[in-house]
Amino acid sequence: GRLNYYGTRQWMHNAAPTVLDGLKFALCLDQIAGPKLYLHFSRNPKDLNLQRLYTLFEETAARMEIPFELVHKKINVSNAEMAWEHEAFAYKKILAATLSDRPVPIPQFTRSDPVAPNVDVPTLERNLLFVSEVLAQYLYGSQVPKLTGNTQPSTRHISSWVQYLSANPRSTPHLPKDSPVYAAFEQTMTKYLSEFQRDDVPNPVEMRTDFKFYGEIQMQMKVHSTKPLSFDLLLFVFICLYLLALNVYFKGFEDVLAVKDTLLGAYFGKPKSQ
């Protein structure tokens, strides 16, 4: 995420050369649950197939009535901070682009989570169908039928994943090796993909980066329930009235009247004699 995409860079560093050589284009998905989508890329492709892919994005967005915009911005090589994930691929001479619902990147160290508890599921479903339509037409030709029925994203399936991922922590300090999130991903990918392989990257704690990663943190937090402030004020008033009642009972009203005159004299001064 917004830690300069060290996870993506570490994966490319450990990937076999044959894997990187086989990458013709990498589509990076940022947060895509917004009403408008932007396709960010760093250089205009000279390859006709990639030009056709960008055209498919625009044509499919127009057909599905999705606000869409291509954003071309060159990489600032003098800046060590990466704005988008596709820039990590660009340094490896791999053509890539980032699909996002944001026109500009968010600042570093802030949240960059494509799944949030308040995500608009119908909009997310529409955008996932949009990406699926584009990739299907690009891979299988323009004659491929529209994705309907079992081939299109399921609202129930997307909602269940949104609820599950938003309820389980996925950051490094809170993601143990035996986390059920890994098992859920493996089970789903094995079910829907013809080929699946899990690549274990080095623990982020052991990575040499500009950031310090910590392992799983386990601690116990204690919460003490206290009375509200109104209870203390009410108790103070009752105590004062109780002490006043005891004073009147044993000494009468003389001391009370004396205290009253003293307080009035201190605030308003003694009355002037005529």
Automatic annotation (TrEMBL):
Indicate the transmembrane segments per the record: 229-250
Which InterPro entries is this protein grouped with?
Answer: Nicalin (IPR016574)
Any one of the GO BP annotations:
regulation of signal transduction
Major location category of this protein: endoplasmic reticulum
Q: Where would you find this protein in the cell?
A: Endoplasmic reticulum membrane
Q: Which GO terms describe its cellular component?
A: endoplasmic reticulum membrane
**PANTHER family with a match to the protein in the record:** NICALIN (PTHR31826)
Membrane topology category = Single-pass membrane protein
Q: Which UniProt keywords apply?
A: Endoplasmic reticulum, Glycoprotein, Membrane, Signal, Transmembrane, Transmembrane helix
Annotated protein name in UniProt: Uncharacterized protein
Name the source's superkingdom: Eukaryota
* Family stated for the protein in its record: Belongs to the nicastrin family.
